[in-house]
Amino acid sequence: MITSTSNQKVKELLQFQKKSKARNQERVFIAEGSRMVGETPRKSLLKLYVSETYYNKHREELEKMKSHPEVLTDTVFAYVSDTKSPQGILAVIRQMDYRLEDILRKRTPHILVLDNLQDPGNVGTIFRTAEAAGATGILMSRDCVDIYNPKTIRSTMGAIYRMPFLYLDDLQKGIRTLKEKNIRIYAAHLKGDNSYDKEDYRRGTAFLIGNEGNGLNSDIARCADTWLRIPMEGQAESLNAAMAAGILMFEVSRQRRKG
Amino acid sequence: MITSTSNQKVKELLQFQKKSKARNQERVFIAEGSRMVGETPRKSLLKLYVSETYYNKHREELEKMKSHPEVLTDTVFAYVSDTKSPQGILAVIRQMDYRLEDILRKRTPHILVLDNLQDPGNVGTIFRTAEAAGATGILMSRDCVDIYNPKTIRSTMGAIYRMPFLYLDDLQKGIRTLKEKNIRIYAAHLKGDNSYDKEDYRRGTAFLIGNEGNGLNSDIARCADTWLRIPMEGQAESLNAAMAAGILMFEVSRQRRKG
User: Which of A126, A163, A235, B10 has the largest count of CB atoms under 10 Å?
Assistant: First the structure.
């Protein structure tokens, strides 16, 4: 059992929690909680850590597992946990590794393109919602928040394991590739002329979603075939970025279910 | 200028930021940032505080205002601010005071009923989205998170000033009142049989939205006329509560625009 916060493994865990550089160097991330750990694909799970209390409560099932967990005292576990009330289980997991082809494989793609999104909760919620809406993949500009940030991972509610995604250095080039595949590019834009619910999303569809405060970068917005508007009442100036993405994606889902 | 964190006004501000009890005793809340403060209805704004830097930058416009602001040193302002990077302006604002009649006044109500929602960001996002979707009011069970929590206020993006709402001790009684007004009650429920996009929302409509982790309390769910399901793909078990509410509300908006 690890009893000290100056233990080398503990120091490493803390680096993985706090530093994207440390995560990316080792190509790992951390997921916490029995649900997130339970949904981890077996081949991606590198190392399991549990608190003493968790170990004593779940000893039998833990001993059946192939990857024998490392036990930390409750205090040390709380020290490495990213949450205020740790469940007592976390895993070090191998980062995903998708290519553009993984995202384009489906016959009628339904893709989100995220430009400079900065809020970890928003990006996590977009992943979770995208899975539910049947989206086929997510492209992100390099300056989006790190998907492996613990808060983002938590908000994905497991969709991180199942939703193909890719960071791109050149988002415009990525969008051009989508166009070559006959995917229609829609920018969610406050100055859009076309109401989002008047378009036909039964063909290949991609939505460009911009930064929470500033909206879409104009160079990116110019890449779109169509600028969409979500009609709003009251004095609301805009929607939360994840909410806007969710409303668009579920309109696609609604139309495709209708056939 | 206030230069000390032990100043009585500073202590009071901190209480208003941190304690719902202090807010409710004085029937006030705090909004931060030039946008939130700028949208405050004049008659509700009780007291304005700015940082020294903010004051020096905006002196002319601030001196034109009726309610002369109190200036705090930047350090003291940062101490009372709820944000990591304070903009340097906050206001003490009188709490709203709606009655059920305010929520039922419109000819075809579009109401959200929130049961035990706990996440401040979720509730704030629901207010913001509700305004944009043209909802007419929000009812909340007494055990929902405090709407006047600084994080909730921030996520409403100003909708707090414009969206009528009410906390109810007896949510079931409130729902019965809606029914008497011929408003159809829909529960958003994972076990719902009816797909949300097959219902007709052009008449009076209310949605019951449950707790983030546990969904709707069964006593509340039983009050509904219809249980709705948002069809989901993948292994997604549920949507974020604010997202589910947003998708339902924008389906109402879509149908009502179509006429």
Answer: A126
